[in-house]
Amino acid sequence: MSLWWVAGAGAALYLWWWTTYASYRILHPNRSGSPLPAEGWAGTVEARTVHTHDGFPLPYWLIHPPQPKGLLITCHGYWGSKIQAVPVAQPLVRAGYAVILWDLRGHGEHPGRACTWGRDEVKDLLRLLEQLQRDPVFGALPVGVLGYSMGAAVALLTLAQTTRLRAAIVDSTYAHVGPLIRRYFRRVRRLPDWPFGHLACLGVAWRLRLPLERFDPLTAIPSTEPRPLFLIHGDADRSVPVAEAWAICQAWRGPKAFWRMASADHMQMQERYREAYERKIIAFLDRHLASGAPFVV
Fold first, then answer.
1. Which domain holds residue 74?
2. Does 6 map to a domain?
3. Residue 95 is part of a domain; what is its CATH number?
4. Does residue 184 sit within a domain?
């Protein structure tokens, strides 16, 4: 056996290992989370559970004022947890909205081990909506969704599956999954797209048993019934270029608004511009979820 055969076999074995390892790590991010803050809520905090389509008992928090005028479901970002939405959830409850905080798959307290980039997260959100619809108190409330990054993609994909969600707020959303993963390995890991980024994407698609294009929010828009959409993005976002959010904004057929600031990186708008962030989100919900009137930023 020549050295060329040995080198070729070694390279193939290494690339196979890389594909399986990288795709596993992408679907199993390090979990984070912390207890719900005990103070700062102008309402009641309830710990609830919904059973997912594959039998997992999924815990979530429902925080609500005495007489809510609407309900907002939050979806955190990759590597995050439901705690991510606490800063905006507190003023929302004070403004009269019920808020649901829950963990996506592979994150926080979710019993599901793997993050599936929307495949099963959308099913979990639909199951949560089904439970809420049967609730004697909250079933009649108009429901909206707030998502960050991957959670924003989950929100957009879910909008294509149900009309129960009447409005959506998406912070730092991406348009395509594949380029996002390749950009991560290129920018953070300093690895070239070929072969590393492309093989990681192939491994993820193989593990999910679906092409990654199925989880692209942009491809779901043509089948989505028009509803109000509020996009939030930082122009300095290095993880997801603002052009991706702009592509979604251009393709969206319903009422829409786009708030962007030059100095904010990925998911930094909430932290850097907290007062404006809270004010604009509450204004959007008041005009589109609670009353249905036109929204102008």
1. 35-177+211-290
2. no
3. 3.40.50.1820
4. no
Model pLDDT for residues 5-50, shown as the tens digit of each residue: 767 777 889 899 999 999 999 999 998 877 888 777 889 999 999 9
**pLDDT tens digits for range 67-84:** 999 999 999 999 999 999
Instruction: Map the chain to HEC letters.
Output: CCHHHHHHHHHHHHHHHHHHHHHHHHHCCCCCCCCCCCCCCCCEEEEEEEECCCCCEEEEEEEECCCCCEEEEEECCCCCCHHHHHHHHHHHHHCCEEEEEECCCCCCCCCCCCCCCCCCHHHHHHHHHHHHHCCCCCCCCCEEEEEECHHHHHHHHHHCCCCCEEEEEEECCCCCHHHHHHHHHHHCCCCCHHHHHHHHHHHHHHHHCCCHHHHCHHHHHHHCCCCCEEEEEECCCCCCCHHHHHHHHHHCCCCEEEEEECCCCCCCHHHHCHHHHHHHHHHHHHHHHHCCCCCCC
Answer yes or no: is 296 within a domain: no
Mean of all residue pLDDT scores within the chain: 93
Q: Does pLDDT of 216 surpass 60?
A: yes
Position 295 scores a pLDDT of 44
Output the pLDDT for position 291. Answer: 72
Total domains, the chain? 1
Q: Is the pTM of this model over 0.85?
A: yes
